[in-house]
Design brief:
Length: about 150
């Protein structure tokens, strides 16, 4: 049950952080054009993206993290002392893979900020946070608890 809960939490965490970072990346492009954006507008944009991107982005994240965590679990069985690093990297790579695969297969970047290295990296960070959540929730005992 911990694995299912951890996976669900990881997907939700990665989705929320990823969607917020997408909205802020889009806003930074608007600011570069010379427009003023208030803090309230930033919050509104983030809220809008979190509430409206779930239909497409949430399933992509769920699939990417399912594959990434399965591969990580296979590796972690052989090197259990790298459990935290394994799941954090799996989340990072899984989120990056979404955008790289979309670009290579469909020829498009579905999320504008991921066209830049910083935007792509920010989505990786969202996945890494999801990996951390998964590792924390699925720990077996206190000695498995991620430090930091």
């Amino acid at each position: 049950m911990r694995v299912v809960t951890g996976y669900g939490l990881a997907v939700i965490c990665s989705y929320i952080v990823g969607a917020v970072l997408v909205s802020q990346g889009n806003i930074s492009s608007i600011v570069e054009l010379g427009f003023d954006i208030t803090l309230q507008q930033r919050f509104d944009a983030a809220n809008h993206d979190v509430m409206n991107m779930y239909g497409i982005y949430l399933p992509l994240i769920a699939i990417a993290l399912l594959i990434a965590f399965a591969v990580a679990a296979f590796v972690i069985r052989r090197v259990p002392h790298l459990r935290l690093l394994g799941y954090v990297l799996a989340g990072f790579v899984g989120m990056i893979a979404i955008h790289v695969i979309l670009k290579q297969v469909l020829g498009l970047s579905g999320i504008a900020p991921t066209r830049t290295l910083l935007g792509l990296f920010s989505q990786g960070i969202a996945g890494a946070l999801g990996g951390y959540c998964f590792c924390w929730v699925t720990r077996q005992n206190e000695s498995d608890r991620p430090s930091g």
